[in-house]
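lol forgot to send this yesterday, sorry. struct tokens for the thing we talked abt
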């Protein structure tokens, strides 16, 4: 869409008629994409953006690079939400190529496979599975009953996805108006799952806002785990039942998170970190190969000592 047409639809002013192909984050946006700045802590990202245009407040507009068009507005995040709908793909494609299914793949009855989708060889797709448009699944992957894989998602080789899991559902993103109404931010990215990944029953992995939620090779995910939009779960991580990972958090390789533990959003957890059951991560963990427990989080040995002292108080 042309930038001036986008602005007119949402009630903003812009005279430029350059073509905008997509929305993206400040650092990832190209010279044909639109981005935004809401939080001042990302002001350095604004200074270095290559975006064609940016939604920005008057206060922050002086930091916009000369190659980027500043679209001034009071609430950039709210206008991003409104514009995201304009770039949302169709829920279901009516036109496109029939799905391609590789040799040796077994597809049980009552399976839906969308347009332009490709399934590799020697896979098993069980009854009730929904595989949306433009989905790619590698070789030797097993999809158990009633798994839902939304459009545009990619799954590698030798994966196992157990019953009831949903891959590519919308991330939880809303912008508030001044009177408290919630405006949906359309999640226009996807989910990419590597090879040799096992995902338990009734898990949910949300699609990204702009790019991809990523599950790398060799990850093991137990039942009832939730991974929010734009997360990256690096190779070899283990997530035990009822773990919750908030949006845009990165787990570096071989992190282990015990049952009912959780991480807040926009954090990084160092390689080979272990979070004990019910541990709550609220700050990034930068030192690798340590074990943590509790809420607020303590190093595991300290937490055990604390529990011992509390126990002695009750005697």
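and heres what i got for the seq, position by position
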């Amino acid at each position: 869409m042309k930038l001036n047409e986008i602005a007119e639809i949402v009630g903003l002013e812009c005279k430029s008629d350059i073509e905008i192909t997509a929305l993206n984050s400040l650092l990832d946006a190209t010279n044909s994409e639109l981005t935004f700045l809401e939080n001042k802590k990302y002001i350095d990202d604004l200074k270095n953006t290559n975006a064609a245009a940016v939604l920005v407040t008057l206060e922050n507009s002086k930091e916009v690079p000369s190659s980027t068009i500043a679209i001034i507005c009071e609430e950039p995040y709210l206008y991003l939400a409104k514009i995201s709908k304009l770039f949302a793909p169709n829920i279901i494609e009516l036109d496109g190529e029939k799905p391609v299914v590789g040799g040796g793949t077994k597809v049980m009855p009552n399976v839906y496979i969308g347009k332009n989708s490709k399934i590799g060889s020697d896979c098993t797709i069980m009854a009730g599975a929904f595989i949306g448009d433009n989905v790619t699944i590698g070789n030797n992957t097993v999809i158990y009953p009633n798994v839902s894989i939304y459009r545009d998602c990619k799954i590698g080789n030798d994966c196992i996805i157990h019953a009831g899991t949903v891959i590519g559902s919308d991330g939880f993103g809303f912008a508030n108006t001044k009177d408290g109404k919630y405006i949906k931010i359309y999640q226009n990215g996807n989910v990419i799952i590597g090879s040799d990944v096992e995902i338990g029953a009734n898990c949910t992995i949300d699609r990204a806002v702009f790019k991809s939620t990523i599950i790398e090779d060799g990850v093991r995910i137990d039942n009832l785990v939730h991974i929010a939009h734009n997360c990256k779960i690096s190779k070899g991580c283990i997530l035990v039942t009822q773990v919750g990972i908030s949006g845009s958090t990165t787990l570096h390789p071989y992190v282990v998170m015990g049952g009912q533990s959780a991480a807040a959003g926009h954090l990084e957890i160092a390689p080979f970190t272990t979070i004990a059951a019910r541990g709550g991560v609220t700050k990034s963990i930068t030192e690798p190969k340590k074990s943590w427990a509790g809420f607020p989080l303590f190093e595991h040995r300290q937490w055990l000592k604390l529990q011992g002292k509390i126990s002695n108080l009750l005697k």
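The chain is about 10% helix and 25% strand. anyway ping me if u want another try
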